[in-house]
Write a structure and sequence with these properties.
Blueprint (H helix, E strand, L loop, with lengths): L2 E2 L9 E2 L2 H8 L6 E4 L2 E7 L6 E5 L8 E4 L17 H6 L20 H12 L1 H12 L5 H14 L12 H7 L4 E2 L8 H10 L3 E3 L5 E3 L9 E12 L2 E11 L5 E8 L2 H8 L9 H11 L1
Antiparallel strand pairs: 1-2, 3-4, 4-5, 5-6, 7-10, 8-9, 10-11, 11-12
């Protein structure tokens, strides 16, 4: 992996460089400590909260992190880092990455699952904002409630592919298909593609999708499918597909959504509280608490 964090208690992660590591640790233990007679650099995996060792900090142009499970008393685990072999087995940075399905579940009492659920609740308005930005579609209060109810039914926080980095997109991934008619799209290109492929549809000046002949039925629905994750040269990339399909399950329009882990982190750490929509947060609490 090419990122690290210094504690389980934080979501803040950093690119692995000597400067970044020195800056956030101030060269203190337990992040700096000897191992086998040599200097060692230790941190926490941003995805699975297990300890990691930084490899090649001084010798490589691009040092990287590797999961590290010390023998008892060998080294001190970085602040509140915990060793959980099961989380490691499903970690996207693990060397033996497994194929994911929605049925792959963490244990009901998983600490990481509990944290994911808590963050989703407290940051729910920002989750909705990010999904609106990446899909180009307005998510109404009523739709947000439906999504929360389906996330609760699926226990989405227990999904093995969920991490604290990808909360908004995995939340959307748990949603069942919803009708397109009546939705408001503010992505002009997506709207143009949709109207070109389905000339029976129309769009008003506010971006609301409707059908030209009110006596006809619009069979289109949208969903989020194909959660994919891939590590290349220690860098994790994740995506899902925003898919609009007809009643024959034929794709009419689609768009790949690349997970912006850094942007989500900046969003939830923003000090700007003025633009927050706390009614969405209260909705998440009422449904998920």
């Amino acid at each position: 992996m090419d990122v690290f964090k210094i504690s389980v208690d934080t979501q803040q992660f950093h690119k692995i460089t000597q400067d970044n590591f020195d800056q956030v640790t101030k060269k203190q233990a337990p992040w700096y400590q000897p191992i086998n007679g040599h200097q060692g650099w230790f941190a926490v995996c941003p995805a699975c909260d297990n300890p990691i060792q930084i490899i090649g900090m001084l010798e490589r142009d691009a040092p990287y992190g590797k999961h590290f499970f010390p023998t008892a008393g060998a080294v001190s685990v970085p602040l509140k880092g915990r060793t959980d072999k099961e989380e490691y087995e499903w970690c996207p940075y693990a060397s033996k990455n497994k194929h994911l399905t929605k049925d792959d579940r963490r244990a009901a009492g998983s600490e990481l699952a509990v944290l994911i659920k808590q963050i989703l609740i407290e940051q729910f308005d920002r989750v909705i904002y990010l999904l609106e930005k990446t899909t180009g579609m307005r998510i109404s209060f009523a739709l947000a409630k439906q999504m929360l109810e389906e996330y609760r039914a699926a226990e989405g926080w227990r999904y093995r592919g969920a991490t604290r980095q990808n909360i908004p997109w995995v939340f959307a991934y748990m949603m069942q298909a919803k009708r397109v008619r009546g939705r408001t799209f503010f992505d002009k290109k997506l709207t143009e593609d949709l109207l070109t492929r389905r000339p029976d549809l129309t769009c008003n000046t506010n971006g609301k999708i409707d059908i030209k002949d009110d006596t006809k039925f619009c069979d289109l629905s949208f969903s989020f499918i194909r959660h994919r994750r891939h590590v290349n040269q220690h860098t994790l990339s994740e995506s899902i597909e925003f898919n609009i399909a007809n009643s024959k399950q034929e794709t009419v329009c689609k768009r790949e959504i690349i997970f912006e882990h850094d942007y989500f982190l900046k969003l939830i750490n923003s000090k700007n509280e003025a633009s927050r929509r706390m009614n969405f947060v209260e909705l998440a609490r009422s449904v998920l608490a």
